[in-house]
UniProtKB/TrEMBL annotation:
Signal peptide: none annotated. InterPro entries: Cupin_2 (IPR013096), RmlC-like_jellyroll (IPR014710), RmlC_Cupin_sf (IPR011051). Pfam families: Cupin_2 (PF07883). This is Cupin domain-containing protein. It comes from the Bacteria. It comes from Streptomyces sp. R44. Residues 20-91 form the Cupin type-2 domain. Gene3D superfamilies: Jelly Rolls.
């Protein structure tokens, strides 16, 4: 099994990019920087560890359908810290 979550681009145009992320337990996005403001829409319930470059770990409990928004510029890695598959849709505003 790969350690990297599967990213599937669902839509992209000059205004937005929509990506679905699917994680098995323990899989990660890899470290990245958000170039755009974004909204995350969890598809499943789950727990993530959000790891910043300085090693700070934030535990997040995701609930299916409970969206949240974040500004551009954040740098982190997201890991599925649960025991079940995890999925969310990320909508980036260009």
């Amino acid at each position: 099994m790969s350690t990297t979550a599967r990213a599937t681009k669902q839509h992209e145009d000059d205004r937005v990019r929509v990506t679905r992320w699917d994680f098995e337990p323990g899989q990660s996005t890899g470290r990245h920087i958000h170039a755009y403001d974004y909204v995350v829409v969890p598809v499943t319930d789950g727990r993530t560890h959000v790891i910043t470059p300085n090693g700070t770990v934030t535990v997040s409990e995701l609930r299916a359908g409970e969206s949240y928004a974040r500004p551009a510029g954040g740098e982190h890695e997201v890991v599925n810290a649960g025991t079940a598959p995890l999925a969310f849709v990320e909508i980036e505003s260009k």
